[in-house]
Structure formats: structure tokens, C-alpha cells
Write a sequence for this structure.
């Protein structure tokens, strides 16, 4: 394998002079800041939001660095994982020329973002056991294949990909491998963020939206080599993470015990709910989940979806995805919410 990062970078990005913001040009302490055209008088709020935020979010990264045991310099923070995905396309994929590989059924945003960026997606379906088709993936790559998206644990199927398969792809694919670990906290599998020095072509994505309970703050994380992080920093909007999000996330990171406790409860609740759901005759199959949701195959997904919605319970119908016909995806709720779901299901006559 011959991985050369610079060969993957779009020409316009290689020669790009990034925007230089006021907070980038002067980073030190001073008593009077008259360099950014902010409102020097203040903001009409109890707390001051009149100053632009730290463009590189060092305080938040330092907190994440301690929890994840990855140097702050190897972390990028996006306005949700969505921004990380979009930036990967904009940095590496020439519109109308390059392509990426995705492995359906998987998270929809990889393809939507490719379409927005006019990048071709080559689809190599997972196997029937929802595992990676390593040989087919490698066979599908060509000189213009820049990215390979692997979602593990996978959404919507809930399972983790075999580590050996991922490693084979990291070792044999010349492009970048993006492993989306949005649900890693709910899994017993090991994260790949400790492998960054071993694999120069690795980008690991995580998010504060799921286990961390901060979906509305929009904070997506990427872990990668210094060279890759530098490219993300060069192309991102200068102040992509607002001050409120940075501040609240720093505060939330103090509360790891609460998050760990919830993760344990969610995992226990997942096993409980799976057991209860398996008793219903209209539930044909419940897939093994390493995430905070269950995928179930039922007799008539559309009918069941509508029945639940009529009872004010909203789940996700994933029937249109490959291998997922008549499948519903159900997020693990609180014990009370799950009891209500089960009670409503007891009155369902398909
Ligand atoms: C929910 C989810 C995310 C998180 O996206 P954010 O933009 O960070 O909220 C990322 N990847 C997958 C597979 C998801 O299911």
C-alpha cells in the first residue's frame, strides 16, 4: 500500500490561503480589543456573548483529550458530525471526478453529503450478517476513490463491524478510511482512536450527540493525524463552534459519572426491551445491537409504525434500506417510556 496524504488533497485546497480571523491573528492577553468589530458595550444577556469564540476550541479539546486519551492537537470539532463529513468531501473529493465507498444499509448522511458535493458514491452492500464485504470493497476502489465510510456500530443495523476486517481495509486501501463511532459508548468493542499513529489513513468520528446527551449543541468530533487535522482547520468556517456550545460542553465533560451511569442503564434497558419485544408474535427478528437502539423485523412495518404514531409513539421505519424491509428502528427510552411502548404494543392486532 502506498498512502500519501498530499496526493489525496484537492488541488485548490493544497494552494488555499485560509481566512485569517482577528482571534487567529492575535491570540494573547490584552486589555482593549478593537480588532474584530464586535460590540464593545456588551450583549443584551446576563452573560457576555459579544466576543467571537476561540476558533480552535482549545479548552474543550483539552477536556476531550483527557477523557479520550488522545492529544488535543489530534482532535477536530465540527458543528455536528455532519460538518466533519462535509469537510472530508470538500478537502479530498474533486466534484464530478472522485468517488467514495459506502456500505449500505448505513447512515444516510454519507450519501446526501456526497450528492451535495457532486461526488459519486460506490455502494458495496454489507453481507447478509451486516458485516463488511472486504474483497468487494477493495475490488470497487479505483484511482479516484478517496474515502471509505465505515459505521461501527452501524446505524441502522446496530452491530459492530469485525475489527479484523476494518484492519484489513486500513492496511490495503490507499485512500482515507473514516470510521464513524457515533455509538461506541454503548458497545464493548474497542475504539480505533488509539490507532492513529499506526494508521496514517485513519479518521475516527465520534459525537457528543448520543451517549453524551448534547445533540442540540451540535458537536461532532474527528480524531486523526496532525496533517489531516491541519487540513480540516484550514477549510472549516473560522468560528464553526459557537461560544455557548463550547462553554456548555466544557461544563458537561465534568459530569462523566452521570454519562457512564446512563450508558450502563441504556445498555441494560436495551437487553430488557429486546427480551420483552421478542415475545410478540408480530416481531420476526431482533438484531443484535451494540448501540442505543434496536432494529426489528416485523410483520408489517408501515402498519405498526402508523399504529404507534396514532398512539403518540414515534419510531423510525427503515424499510426502504437494503436488507431492511419491514424493519423498524427503535431508540431505547427511559424505563417509563419503554413500559408505555410495551403496553401499547400489547393492544396491537396486526
Ligand atoms: C447520530 C449519528 C451521528 C451524529 O451526528 P451529529 O451530527 O454529530 O449529531 C453520526 N453518525 C451516525 C452514524 C449517527 O447515527
Amino acid at each position: 500500500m502506498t498512502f500519501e496524504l498530499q496526493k489525496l488533497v484537492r488541488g485548490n485546497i493544497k494552494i488555499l490561503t485560509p481566512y485569517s480571523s482577528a482571534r487567529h491573528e492575535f491570540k494573547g492577553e490584552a486589555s482593549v480589543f478593537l480588532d474584530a468589530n464586535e460590540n464593545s458595550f456588551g450583549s443584551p444577556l446576563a452573560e457576555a456573548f459579544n466576543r467571537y469564540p476561540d476558533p480552535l476550541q482549545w479548552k474543550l479539546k483539552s477536556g476531550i483529550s483527557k477523557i479520550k486519551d488522545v492529544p488535543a492537537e489530534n482532535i477536530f470539532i465540527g458543528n455536528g458530525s455532519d460538518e466533519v463529513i462535509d469537510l472530508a468531501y470538500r478537502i479530498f473529493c474533486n466534484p464530478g471526478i472522485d468517488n467514495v465507498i459506502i456500505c449500505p444499509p448505513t447512515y444516510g448522511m454519507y450519501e446526501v453529503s456526497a450528492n451535495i458535493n457532486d461526488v459519486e458514491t460506490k455502494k458495496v452492500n454489507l453481507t447478509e450478517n451486516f458485516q463488511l464485504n472486504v474483497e468487494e470493497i477493495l475490488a470497487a476502489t479505483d484511482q479516484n476513490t478517496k474515502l471509505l465510510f465505515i459505521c461501527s456500530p452501524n446505524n441502522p443495523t446496530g452491530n459492530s463491524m469485525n475489527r479484523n476486517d476494518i484492519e484489513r481495509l486500513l492496511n490495503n486501501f490507499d485512500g482515507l478510511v473514516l470510521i464513524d463511532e457515533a455509538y461506541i459508548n454503548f458497545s464493548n468493542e474497542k475504539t480505533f482512536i488509539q490507532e492513529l499513529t499506526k494508521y496514517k489513513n485513519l479518521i475516527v468520528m465520534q459525537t457528543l450527540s448520543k451517549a453524551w446527551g448534547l445533540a442540540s449543541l451540535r458537536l461532532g468530533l474527528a480524531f486523526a493525524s496532525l496533517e489531516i487535522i491541519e487540513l480540516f482547520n484550514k477549510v472549516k468556517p473560522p468560528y464553526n463552534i459557537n461560544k455557548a456550545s463550547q462553554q456548555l460542553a466544557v461544563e458537561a465533560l465534568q459530569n462523566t459519572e452521570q454519562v457512564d451511569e446512563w450508558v450502563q442503564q441504556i445498555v441494560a434497558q436495551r437487553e430488557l426491551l429486546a427480551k420483552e419485544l421478542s415475545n410478540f408474535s408480530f416481531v420476526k427478528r431482533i438484531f443484535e445491537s451494540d448501540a442505543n437502539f434496536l432494529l426489528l423485523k416485523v410483520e408489517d412495518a408501515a402498519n405498526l409504525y402508523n399504529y404507534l404514531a396514532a398512539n403518540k409513539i414515534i419510531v423510525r421505519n427503515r424499510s426502504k434500506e437494503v436488507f431492511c424491509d419491514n424493519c423498524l428502528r427503535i431508540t431505547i427510552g427511559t424505563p417509563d417510556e419503554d413500559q408505555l411502548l410495551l403496553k401499547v404494543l400489547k393492544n396491537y392486532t396486526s
Notes: The first helix runs from residue 5 to 8.
